[in-house]
Every structure is written in C-alpha cells, then in structure tokens.
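Model: You mentioned two targets. I'll fold them one after the other.
Researcher: Yes, keep them separate.
Model: Target one:
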Amino acid sequence: MPEDVSLTTVAARAGVSISTVSRIVNGETRRASAATIARVRDAIEAVGYRPNPVGRALRRRQSQVVGMLVANLDNPAMATIASSTEAALRSAGYVMMLCDTHDRADLQDDYLSALRAQLVRGFVMVASVPSKGLADLSAEGAPMVFVTRRAPAGRGPFVGIDDRAAGAAVADRFIDEGRRAPAVAFPQQGSSATRDRVLGFLARLAERGRPAASVIQGEGSGLSHLQVGYEAAEKIFSAGDKPDAILCVSDQIAYGVRRRALERGLDVPGDCSLVSIDGSPLNKWVAPWLVSVEIPYIAYGQEVLASLNAIWTGSASMDRLLPYRF
C-alpha cells in the first residue's frame, strides 16, 4: 500500500464521509446502503488501501499491547532484537511498549509494575536480571518470554542460541588452527548466556586436551561490556603466557580487549586473534579485524511472537533455539 493511501483517500474516491468508510472497513454495514458499500469497496480496491491492524486494535480498546524490557539499548544486538520484535508484533496487530532497564533490578521491577497496570497482554524479557517483581509475576503465570538470557527464577520459554555449543565451536576453531595459548574474556557479573559460552569453551578445550587451568582467563567488572573487555584484557595480557587467541563472549567485550591490546603495542589479529559471539552487522564497518560467531538477531522477532502465541493459545511452550553461523 502506498504510504499516502488512507481512509481519507478512500472516502474522496467513493464520495462518502471518512466515518462511513471507517464503519464499512470495520464491518459495520447496517447503516449503509448496498450501493454505498459497493462504492466504498470498489474505492478500497482501486486505491490499494489495506486496514492497519494496530490502529484497529487501539480503536476497539482490545488488550493488544505487549511490553518489552531490554537490559541495554546501547547494545546493537539488543536494539536489533527490539526492532525485529516490534515489526513482528505490529504485523500481527499488536502494539509494543519498550523499556530500557539498564540491567538494574529496581528499574526492571518499576517497569514491570507500570506495564502490569496497563494490562499488557504479555512480557518480552530481553536479558532480564533476577528481581522480586519478576519472580512474583513468573509465579503468577504471567505470559512471559525470555530472550538471550534464560529465566532467572522458575521457568519460561526461551528464545536464543545454544550458548554452550557456540563456546565449544570457538574452542574447536582455536584447536584446529593450532593456537598454543587460548584465552577467554568475560564479565564478572555474568548472565546465563555469558556463563554458558565460557563453560562450553572450557569444556571443549578440556575434551581436546587443554584443561581449564591451562587457559588464560580474564574477567572485567561493571555493566558496560566495553569496560569489561578493557579490564579483562589487562588481566589476560599481564599473565605469564601471552595469548595468541582470545574468545570474547560479546562483540563489545572484543572492542574493549582490542583497545587495551593496541595500548600495549600488540597487533590484532597479527599477534593475537579475537573471536566474539554476537556478529553485529556493524563489525564489517568498525571491526573488520574481528571474527564472530554470528547470531541471527534479526530473526528473533518472529520466534518471540510464536512463543507468545503458544502461551496465549494454551499450547505447550518450548525453547526456540536459533542457528548461529561461524
């Protein structure tokens, strides 16, 4: 439908009022003659008008609002998930309300309370953190889908990747490339996703003859993955053995690691190769030196919608694991 086609366009073509077109579009035809209905429908077809399901839902005051809570919209991955989910929900006739919790439990609970007061139809929790409000809602059986991080307490359908398998894939790559001193950089305040990536990485290295004690490990504090990477890199580069390959459990951690490497006069990837698990499309513009396990965040929206539909229809809810690409 052309962007400038609206009810006004249809009304002008049919020679009737906008309110008449609106009633007929919404199935209220008792007050219109057969000839008027025919003219309006012919005009709709002629101009290519298609009703907006979101607008229709709002006019009917249906509970078509879904709340999404995101831990950090500065993170391109989370912004992509939010955009993808909004598009999927909008196409199905829902309105999405977006809140940034900044990875804080108190803000998360404030937003959960506010969204609950708005009678939202469901909650999409992107990288949620443990909190009392979340635990209470989960215990009540609120329709809730967890994205990238699994439910902090209780159970709930999960949309994401097999993080342990992704970490193991990086370990296999390092071994197959003959890397002698692998390392891993991760946040001190981790999540289910970052912990599983590290565990999968270390477990596979151990399976292939590299016990965890031989792997250089560096963690960084704080919520900013840029700062986490910078601090983790200082610990890694200060270790006795110099790493020749580092797993960074997110793109932004890799950016922080490289910054510290350059300050130490190291060449990336010449002296030390960096591999992240994220794969933002921005990397080809700002980080061509970075190899990534690419996660299809753009496809998350449809999977989130499918999970919500399963909850709403009473179907068995299940985890939805998307394929990643290395």
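Model: Target two:
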Amino acid sequence: MLIAEDSTVSPALLKVLDGAVDLHVHSGPSPFPRKLNHVEASYDAARINLRAILIKSHHHNTVMDLLAMADQLKDAPTPAFGGVALNSEVGGINPSAVAVAIQMGGRAVWGPTVSAGQHIEAHRDGDGFPAAGGNLEEDEVTIFDDSGNVSEQTTRVTQLVAEADIMLTGGHLDAPQMAELFATAKRNGVRRMLVHHPDYIIDAAEGDLEAMLSHGAFVEHEMSMYHPDVPAPGFPISRLVDWIEKVGPERTVINSDLGQKVNPFPVDGYINVIQRLLDEGVPERDIRQMICHNTAFLLGLEETP
C-alpha cells in the first residue's frame, strides 16, 4: 500500500529492529497535516516488522479512528492501538473521556500536550505549531485544582488508568507538575508511566527527572528530534547517547514521533537513528531493550520490561 522512501536496509539492522514497538506515531486523521493515515502507518511499520504501533493525536480519541477503520485494518500487517490525550478538545482532565477510551480498547492516556501551559509558552513565538490545525479554541489544562492541590479529576483519571493497567504519560506538562502526576499515579497503582522528551518543551531539571524515575516512569526520546531531515530541534546523535548513558537503557525508550506531512515516514526514523546509535557503539542488546522490551511493557504487550 505504501511505497517506502528507503527500502534498502541491511540484514544486520533489520535484525536489531525486528519486533520493535513504536509508541509515538502521528498518522491521520488529525487537524494537523499528516503524511499517512493509520492503515498506511500499519503497512509502513511492516517494512521493518514492527510488533505494534500506538497512534497518538493531540486532539481526539484515536481508538475511535481505529474502530472506524476496522475493515481496512483487518488485513493490515502491524497491530495499531490508540488512546486519548487530555487536552481541552476532550474536556481536559476528564475521567469520562478516559473511561470511554478504555472501554473501547485504549492502551494509553496522554497528559495534556497542546493544552499544557509549558507547551503554550514554548510555542508562544509563533513557530507554526499552534496554528498547524487552525484556531482550535484551546484552553490551558492543569492537573491542579483552584487551591493548588492535585484535582479530584486527576486522581480519578489515575485510578482508571491503574484499573485498566494501561500507560499514562506526562504529556507536555512542566516537570514539577508531571512529577506530581506520577506521584499520584504511583499511589493509585499505575505501573506503566512515560516522560516525553525531557530536554524539549518539558525542560526537566535533574531533581524533577529523578523524582519521576523514582515513581517508576520511563524516559522517552524521539527519533524526530535526531533525524537529519527534521529541522527542529535538530539534536546531534551524541546527545541521545549521553541520555542513554545517564538514565540507562533499562529506563529509556526511543520512539519515532513521526507521521507529520513534512517529515520522514516513522520507519525511516528507525532506519536512520538506530543505525547511527549502532555506529556510535550503543550495544544491540541495549537498543533492543529500549525499542522492543520497554515499549512492549508500556503498551501492555509484556508484563515486565
């Protein structure tokens, strides 16, 4: 169905990539321009035999998309899963939106992303991100109530996530707020937690990141930020190697964060970035821990990382 941009992959690299799980695919439909739809994303993933993909939207419950596309996906080669991000489009920190996503088969609840104050501030200079989908009338979303405490709605969301034993991420919340979210989640029994790009938008201080790790969270880095054909932020691969050494492969995950219209296909992110990690001397065993086992645990495909 999908013609690969680069179908020449060495057998050695294919062996490392085999069975990886991508927890950060931005296929469409979406208010933001996308390079491929969810069905095409499944076929793209099959190019390197991905075990599964997780479809993320900032704006809506992606489980509904996948159920609506069930006929098209029934013969698709790579299983696709969905979830819901708690932005203002679904009512913010909304237990009802979470309950609906879970009941429909959702595997992930993302904390506020485009509605997080940290995200809004990071893109205030008009770099195109907020306007990519037009004016969506978004409001800022926080996990705190008017008195500054973790809200009842936030607590209930973490309880629902724990009961379903699915993944909770901190979205684009600021680091102290994210640490509070994960502390609440841990108290309520959430086992699968993820921090997105701690050095981009989030800007997590070392103490905050240590707190998140102490609550059981994994730390995600995105191939989109290291791929040479993605202009921003354009991090050098040495930065990712440093992060892996700092946090350790046992608590690190690497996902594509690709599917945007102007960027490479998700699988081309794997082909490029994982080969460069191998060239930097990162052991195959560690890479597979980060892209296969940790990600499978977070998606609920395995009981332990």
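Researcher: Noted. Anything on target two?
Model: The longest helix spans residues 284-298.
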